[in-house]
């Protein structure tokens, strides 16, 4: 599959394939909706199981660890069974992960929630490995950056609605911690009762995912760009391409920073005095992701005219500056505006890094996509580092961890803009 470069246009253009774009956009919405619910889960599980920040961030660690474990096998699988069949399998695995929340809630056992999140994320990984390059390849290669950014805008639409859904069903009843001195039986009953608020939303999501899998199976014979089989040796060869390897590092840092900020929002907004309840703070998460959606719609248009490396550098710099202000100088409403506005600057980073990284890979695109999706494991590592920092220096100063990530991403954008990686 070819996704970029004028010389590749003919190879990439598959007659009729663009009709699949609405379905692919629906997939972006679905996994965004599922992923962002972890931000709502964190304050609930943190209180229910009396967790520290680092322990609570294990939710993100287990969720994004799946990308590290599943991405390469997913790339190998999709290169053999094709994009749409791979997507069907991924959706069914996602549904299975959602169904695991029911026994986890019945047990009131934190590790069971972590296992459910891992399985859910494993399914999302399979879908992402297929859907990202598919969205880039469904049409004119010259507009791959714009097309993937548009699809990511609907991903952000999912991440905007997800917190409202999760807050209404998970946080509306309040966030309660166990009373001091509870005996083991009372504590177990308390945890089962509190964890039960998580069951219904994930059962609803599982049903929707099964329906979406059925639709994808029905459309499995639709024309799509071809892929060739990927071998393990191909990944080592591809990692020697500077634009891809540094792009993977940038994906690692970006997803880690985005998830770290999103995971800290509820606790940060309350600490900064911007709001007084977990429910209202949970609703404000939608502003963070809603701004990312707005930015992606704008970015899909801007990227038709402005060099993607420059756009990436400017957005990463803006996010770093806002994070620095939120960490060091602001409080109250000003702090809330600063940290929520990071979502606007996050908007184009993932799709721009992704399409820059796979630019010109041709039939190696599934392998490159697998490497980039593996790098999403940054969502496991960076939030955990931020949680450890928050337990030691406070949540506000811990925001310097994602600030450093954004600074590195800006450097990648400038290198691409200067053409340094093309010459390497």
Describe this structure in words.
There is one protein chain. With 424 residues, this protein is mostly helical. The chain has helices at 9-12, 21-48, 53-56, 58-81, 83-99, 101-107, 110-137, 144-171, 184-195, 199-218, 232-238, 242-271, 278-302, 308-328, 332-346, 349-357, 365-374, 378-393, 395-398, 400-418, 420-423. Helix 7 packs antiparallel against helix 17, helix 8 crosses helix 16 (349-357) and helix 12 (242-271) runs antiparallel to helix 15 (332-346). The longest helix has 30 residues, at 242-271. The model is unreliable at 1-13 (pLDDT under 50).
Key terms for this structure?
disordered N terminus, single chain, 424 residues, mainly alpha
Order of helices and strands: HHHHHHHHHHHHHHHHHHHHH
Distance between the termini: 23 Å
Which structural category do the helix and sheet elements fall into?
Answer: mainly alpha
The number of helical elements comes to 21
Uncertain spans, ≥5 residues at pLDDT below 50? 1-13
Task: Let me know the largest β-sheet.
Answer: none
Arithmetic mean pLDDT: 84
Could you say which overall geometry the principal axes of the C-alpha atoms support?
globular
Classify the helix fraction into a percent range. Answer: over 70%
User: Nearest-angstrom radius of gyration?
Assistant: 21 Å
Strand runs, count: 0
What amount of the residues lies in strands?
under 5%
